[in-house]
Amino acid sequence: MPDMTAPLSPPPEMTSRPFDAFAQQAALLELSDRFRALTDPGDLAYAAAAILANTLAVSRAGYGTIDPVAETITVERDWNAPGIESLAGVLHFRDYGSYIDDLKRGETAVVSDARLDLRTAQGATALEAISARAFVNMPVTEQGGFVALLYLNHAKTRDWSETELAFIREVADRTRDAVERRRAEDELRRLNASLTAEVERRTAEHDALWMATPDLLCVATLDGRFLEINPSWAEVLGWSEAELKATPFADFVHPDDVAPTIAAMASLAEGESVFDFTNRYRRKDGAYRWLEWNAVPRGALIYAVVRDVTAAREQQEALRRTEEALRQAQKMEAVGQLTGGLAHDFNNLLAGISGSLEMIQMRLAQGRSADVERYLGAAQNATKRAASLTHRLLAFSRRQTLTPTVTEVNRLVIGMEELIQRSMGPAVAVEIVTAAGLWHSSIDANQLENALLNLCINARDAMPEGGKLTIETANRWIDDRSGRERDLPPGQYISLCVSDTGTGMTKAVIERAFDPFYTTKPIGQGTGLGLSMVYGFARQSGGQVRIYSELDQGTMVCIYLPRHLGEGAPEEPAETQGALAPARDGETVLVVDDEPTVRMLVVDALHELGYIAIEAGDGAGGLRVLQSDARIDLLITDVGLPAGMNGRQLADAGRIARPGLKVLFITGYAENAVLSHGHLDPGMHVLTKPFAMDILADRIRGLISA
After folding, report:
1. What are the tens digits of pLDDT across the range 583-629?
2. Which CATH entry fits the domain spanning 405-562: 2.40.50.100, 3.90.79.10, 3.30.565.10, 3.40.50.2300?
3. Which listed CATH number (1.10.260.40, 3.90.930.1, 3.30.450.40, 2.40.50.100) goes with 21-186?
4. How many angstroms from the chain centroid is the CA of residue 244?
5. Strands 684-688 and 663-667, how do they pair?
6. How many CA atoms lie within 13 A of 683 on its CB side?
7. Strand ranges (DSSP E) for 479-568?
8. Whole-model pTM above 0.70?
């Protein structure tokens, strides 16, 4: 093995040929003549190789295409001196040395003796085996890429002069140009032949389609006349081709569709395409057919594909009527179920109230007062249950009175942990997982507590043999796709999810789970309003509820509530107040309510507390008092008042005469829009009917003292 670090010197047998400029010039002229006569790219490459070989007296010359990734050369054929074998086929450069790296850089690889060149020393034996002890590999590039190679091989050592290399480069460039020109010409001829055949084929297809398609095809002018129509027009409308071409569009159009048809034609005249436009065309027998147009303007002409959609329109109308009848039937079924459930529950509650009052009346008539307190307690309990029922109904219908405040849901959940633990019993393990950095939400915290407790009780009932209850909170980014799945606008939400390991729900049960009075529990063990209340609260708060469940695997119910992005901090829990302070001398309250019984009870409660009470049965009467000189420290008014002035309008009008007037709205059916969707002015508060008198007294004292 020679010393690869020592300088290489040519062996004594190395030969060189004197440069013959005349011979090389003659070779280039011959090359041009041959290129003009030949048409096959392979013949061009071979002719160039032969001329190079004869001119430079080498053992072999050839031209091949390169795969720079695989590092191979593909030779179709080459010129070889007598006794020299062809290299036609695929050769791998790395089998003969490392000079492929020079070629990839666009450099010509020139080797005078493969044994002495560092790039080929280890592959010299392989090179000598193919008669290439000396060689020139000249790369041909296109748009910066290595695509082809012109190569000359010599069986013996040889010194390549700069003039010879320039001659080789000239032949390589001319060969590449000629080969690519012939290939481009061949491709153009092939494309022309293919295009001609394709045009003929498509013309035949067009003619067949024009004649056979059931669609109505046409070419028309922008002023509304047919130039060309296919036979389907006559089949659908009954008019002949001549009759259709002789008559403007408008004469066939239904009178009700003339205006939109003219508008569509105007759009086409402005260069706009018209798609899925429908109008009615008159048949020759006087009937009308619905046609759907897809038309595009091209210059002064319109090209249109028209479809007879009469049958589809009739089917759609029949389907619409059927769906409307089905919706009406479902609506009546839902109303029947709702009213039936209401009647059942309220009859039970009214029986408890009326029965207790009758027993009190009997005991008082008999002079017996021992059991009166028990009956009063029963009547009050039934009243509270009735109030709870109406609140749940209002929650489902999204009409309950909400008092939204900025709420820290994590703190609310942790604050309920002890209550939830007691409600679950010893057989159910409770785990609470709160998200770090949970966003705030502007919601009614009391209603959220009720909703969470309802979900936990439902989960407990789904685990009669015990199990695990998990409560989780998280921040949620709802994108467009997730929003469509959850029926929510995209945005930022917090989620409160309650999961159990219970019996799970079927798909049919999940679809009805939010219906009022729907329950899978035995009679007497549930009203079926729990989930409907949760659903109504979430929707009224701008959020959503979703159920995820599998039979025998468990259920997860998630409440999604919008993130609060405005100002304000979560409210601290209110401190328990002591005994109510009595009214001060002269403090006066105006009570406006159209229900005499409610008005009487409120006034009596005010008198018990030492307040002066003034009554009015409607908004106009209350406004007259407010516009008088009478002292008024507080206005208590129902929201829904008769005679054209509701409670909010009364309060606003009263504040014009008395700026800063304090107002307490009392309502059993809160019109959210009337109350500004829960955003009340300072000094205004809401109390929902029915209410306990001690709560009323507490609210009155708090407002007047504020």
Report:
1. 677 889 999 988 887 788 788 888 888 888 999 988 889 999 999 98
2. 3.30.565.10
3. 3.30.450.40
4. 47
5. parallel
6. 16
7. 491-500, 544-550, 554-562
8. no
